[in-house]
Amino acid sequence: MSWKDYLDYSKLPTIFCPGCGLGIGLRAILQSFSDLNIKKEDIIFVSGIGCSSRIPGYVDFDSLHTLHGRAIPFATGVKLSCPEKNVIVITGDGDGLSIGGNHMIHAARRNINIKVFLFNNMTYGMTGGQASPTTPLKKYTSTTPYGKYDPDFDSVKLLDGAGSGFIARGTVYHYNMLLKIVKQSIIYKGFSFVEILTPCPTYYGRLQGFDDPAKFFMKQKDLVYSIDQEDKIKEEDKKDKLPIGIFKNEERETFEEIYFKILKDIKEK
Amino acid sequence: MKDFLQGNIAASFGAIDGGIDFFAGYPITPSSEILETFSKELPKLGKIFIQMEDELASICAIIGASLTGKRALTATSGPGFSLMQEGIGYASIVEAPCVIINVMRGGPSTGLPTNVSQGDYMQSKWGTHGDHPIIIFSPKNPQEFYWLTRISFDVAFYYRNPVIILSDESVAHMKAEVERSLPPFDFKFKEKRKIDLPFNFDYDLTSNPYIGMGKNIKITGLFHDETGFPVNEKNKVEKMMDYLIRKIENNKENLFIYEQENLEDAEIVFIGFGIMGGLIKELKNIFNSKGIKSGFFRPITLNPLDENKIETLLKNTKKIFVIELNKGQLYLDIKRILSYKKEINFIGFTRGDIPTIEEVYEKIKRFL
Description:
The structure holds two protein chains of two kinds.
Chain A: H1 22-35, E1 43-47, E2 62-65, H2 71-81, E3 86-92, H3 93-99, H4 101-110, E4 115-120, E5 123-124, E6 130-131, H5 155-162, E7 166-171, H6 175-187, E8 192-197, H7 201-207, H8 213-223, E9 224-226, H9 235-238, E10 242-249, H10 255-268
Parallel strand pairs in A: 1-2, 1-3, 3-4, 4-8, 7-8, 9-10
Antiparallel strand pairs in A: 5-6, 7-10
Helix pairs in contact in A: 1-6, 3-4, 4-5
Chain B: E1 2-6, H1 7-17, E2 22-25, H2 32-44, E3 48-51, H3 55-66, E4 72-76, H4 78-83, H5 85-93, E5 99-104, H6 121-126, E6 135-137, H7 142-159, E7 163-168, H8 169-173, E8 175-179, E9 193-194, E10 206-207, E11 218-220, H9 234-249, H10 252-255, E12 258-261, E13 268-271, H11 277-289, E14 294-299, E15 301-303, H12 307-313, E16 319-324, H13 330-338, E17 343-348, H14 357-365
Parallel strand pairs in B: 2-3, 2-4, 4-5, 5-7, 6-7, 9-10, 13-14, 13-16, 16-17
Antiparallel strand pairs in B: 1-8, 6-15, 12-14
Helix pairs in contact in B: 1-2, 1-7, 3-5
């Protein structure tokens, strides 16, 4: 099955702005389903509120578009009710790391077998380009007209501290690498976290002085470095840049394995 | 067979006997015994129990489970119920058949965590933003708490709507004889029209597919079309809103249950809900023994209220006393329904306890 077969064409076109990177990210996820031969009836998308959270409306399988920040607890209810399904959370930097940050760390700690794809465009696109927890210090947004006063946080370190066994970051510019990361995270057993850097030229890019979406897209290349080449890059060149790649891939017992084993033990007693 | 059970534990067994599949919750006084009972009982039954990180997560987890067709429930109190309001609104717009137990404690805010109150009557109806359909039942004792929780899943699935069980600290912590028997309420559950799409806005009650069945079900908290895809065309939005409200309003005769005595020829009538059920019945007895014809009326369903039924039941009475553990909430509804032809008095207590019958009697005497 081609990646296109996972799309619901009757719902197109999308509401995304010209130059938005969300479509590329969705393509990587759908391509992974196709490459891994996952059936449509075995997938459930769950999202919160925001630009990226509108993605589930365009797919040809079950999807839940829920409340701002709450995609993960909804996904928890769905996954424990349908443990055999691939439950996939589509979220953004505001949805998943600000209003929904608490759910993110607790789902990582529990190790429920859900896959989180967090589209980081460093802004609240849906509401007009306000500052988000991943907007870097001193950047301009519609709520930081004098430059952002507070720094961003590193989601990779946050998720590591919370106990996530699979942590990765990719960009929509580095598509082939992103595809590899997404596939790995779907194969991984347990809670996985993938941050996908994606440009928002309409709001974030414009306020940083980029008049052309293509130029802002190209800029992604200069903002990251691959962890595979970490040793070869000088420390000063890493400054203000984000590493991309798979940072952690270690399986441990999932919540479902532990819980369903307890049920089995009680039954056999 | 009768057991001697605490209200919270009776309700937990009610949910178990009603076929609960999924519980998610977070500790809060005075509802924690429900969380604890399920933590022990559900694994034994092969069902899902999960303690979430907060009430926001708890309500969302049970909605997620209920959208896959599972019988899902959460229990909370005061501050936790406030946190759940956004989720309750979501459940009502996506027609998620979930059940929420709210064990009322004194409020606002942290208020009186270990004491009784009935201050969440209006919040249960109107706590979440926007017009929305909701079904609310309120038990007077552990036995009724058991029955209402047991039947709540059937009601939630039949109407494809969240159900709130509005209990309180006294009903929840009172110990009493409870029979694990079929609920005696006369709800009618008819065969429903089968629809292949996740939503429909033409017929009042339908049976629709769940997520997880491989039917490309889309669900969103935005106004949506019958495939579950967001819409904002005004005619579609209005049609959907009309349907949501109509679904419950058109069925209020079936949903409205109550308890009453001597309403036919009562000069005075005492009205209350939940834990006040015992007190208003006793008041009726006292006044009758003193030669004043009196009756009592206790709505068990707090939403929808069947206004016509209430008007008919109380048509012969001239004087009404609404007695509540709040500053006058059911009172507002009773005034709305009957005010233009009755004398309606309110007696409220917000001290965190249940008043003695003598205290209430003295207060009523001043009005006579």
